[in-house]
């Protein structure tokens, strides 16, 4: 299977995150990509397809903000990484804000996603990596793997959050649409619900979003991913949320994924983006499912059995020492 990764992605390395009331070491570390690369035997750098495919799913003002935030943060005399602390929950609308703290909150939904001087470049190249895998599949590969980092599925059109800045799965899905695939599906099997991907396509009938994830009643991102969220307008019925309780293991996860795959088949998808997180693994430090390393091959086998051309994009997975084996297992299930 073709595998893609851009060295620029490694430069995004925030210091600290707000975790359960304390500042702790940032979990989404560059070493994650190194471990995956070592386990899968390396990857090829993607070509630069420019800003247009990213701007197809994100607001221009938001992308400007991602680029400018570190400069404004420094200009305000702040040390460390840019982190928001106030959010416009009374109603998000285009206000003329000037202070960096106001801009940060207006373009984020949590305080766990710092922006560094290298964030924009890393997120840009993470998206190029997703595009390379997408185009490889559009050109005839059955499947291709994008080692995306930073991840993307929590980022919406105009907001970041959950370690995510540019929604690489949405960039991939939109690129497939723009290349002429009529009905694209995103299957999100990260432990956490992909609220950003859901939001981006919520009112569209041409991109189906299905997610198997930890019940947001107990788990991040809390305010999205509930079973009654089914899409709106033209997108009514084109969102499927399958929350599972903490402790879910292969049997429960596999049955939920089968429901998602049935719905994707009924939708008539002609292209699949697999938003893959390995944080469903039993030893993940911030998650609570019980999948084993071997289970990822089983789940991948079920996805591959649909016969859908598939671009795989990397999302979460924070047990750094197990991450390589878990990703290698997933890819083996596609090839086997
Ligand atoms: C990103 B992805 C809990 C902190 C939660 C955010 C988790 C982001 C997960 N104390 N931090 O979906 O793997
Ligand atoms: Zn996750």
From TrEMBL:
Q: Which InterPro entries match?
A: HDACs (IPR000286), His_deacetylse_dom (IPR023801), His_deacetylse_dom_sf (IPR037138), Ureohydrolase_dom_sf (IPR023696)
What keywords would UniProt list here? Answer: Hydrolase, Metal-binding, Zinc
Q: Where is the Histone deacetylase domain?
A: 46-332
Segments passing through the bilayer? none
Give yes or no: UniProt keyword Zinc.
Answer: yes
Is Transport among this UniProt entry's keywords?
no
Named cofactor requirement(s) = Zn(2+)
User: Could you identify this protein by its name?
Assistant: Histone deacetylase family protein
What domain of life does the UniProt record list for this protein's source?
Answer: Bacteria
Q: Which organism is it from?
A: Sphingomonas citri
Q: Which Gene3D superfamilies match?
A: Histone deacetylase domain
The UniProt entry's sequence similarity note says: Belongs to the histone deacetylase family.
